[in-house]
């Protein structure tokens, strides 16, 4: 990810994060994928009404899908409103999908959605990561590092 891509994510008015993912997984490689959405889905995402809690990605017949992502029905929608939790197709190149497919054959690896954002052209994008689950002692170490950082910040705040 280059500097320009990082700035686009920072400027995005919508940033829906999977906060639990960094606690539960160690990220090995990240990708940015487009999303295939209906009209009311993109409107709900632009309103910030989406969640990545308990969502994951899988590969089926050479296509990558995200399952468990919740996009709330659009408030001003009509009879053509979308279902909140349906599988949504992600857009990656064939080479990237083949690479992911080969990697997830290894035990302990999975594909995790990290962030949904709106790019400079108004399209919804999703950052996904090839990830390995953390062991219990890794999680404890993450908690300890966070607590140490907070205590240092508190001390520095008083000076």
Automatic annotation (TrEMBL):
Which family does the UniProt entry place this protein in? Belongs to the SmpB family.
Tell me, what is one Gene Ontology molecular-function annotation carried by this entry?
A: RNA binding
* Gene3D superfamilies noted in UniProt: 2.40.280.10
Which spans are transmembrane here?
21-39
Q: What lineage, starting at the top, does this entry show?
A: Bacteria, Pseudomonadati, Bacteroidota, Bacteroidia, Bacteroidales
Q: Which InterPro entries match?
A: SmpB, SsrA-bd_prot, SsrA-bd_prot_CS
Q: Which UniProt keywords apply?
A: Cytoplasm, Membrane, RNA-binding, Transmembrane, Transmembrane helix
Signal peptide span per the entry? Answer: none
**Cellular localisation:** Cytoplasm
What's the stated role of this polypeptide?
Answer: Required for rescue of stalled ribosomes mediated by trans-translation. Binds to transfer-messenger RNA (tmRNA), required for stable association of tmRNA with ribosomes. tmRNA and SmpB together mimic tRNA shape, replacing the anticodon stem-loop with SmpB. tmRNA is encoded by the ssrA gene; the 2 termini fold to resemble tRNA(Ala) and it encodes a 'tag peptide', a short internal open reading frame. During trans-translation Ala-aminoacylated tmRNA acts like a tRNA, entering the A-site of stalled ribosomes, displacing the stalled mRNA.
Please name the SUPFAM superfamilies in this protein's record. Small protein B (SmpB)
Q: What is this protein called?
A: SsrA-binding protein
* Biological process, per Gene Ontology: trans-translation; trans-translation-dependent protein tagging
GO cellular component terms, A-Z: cytosol
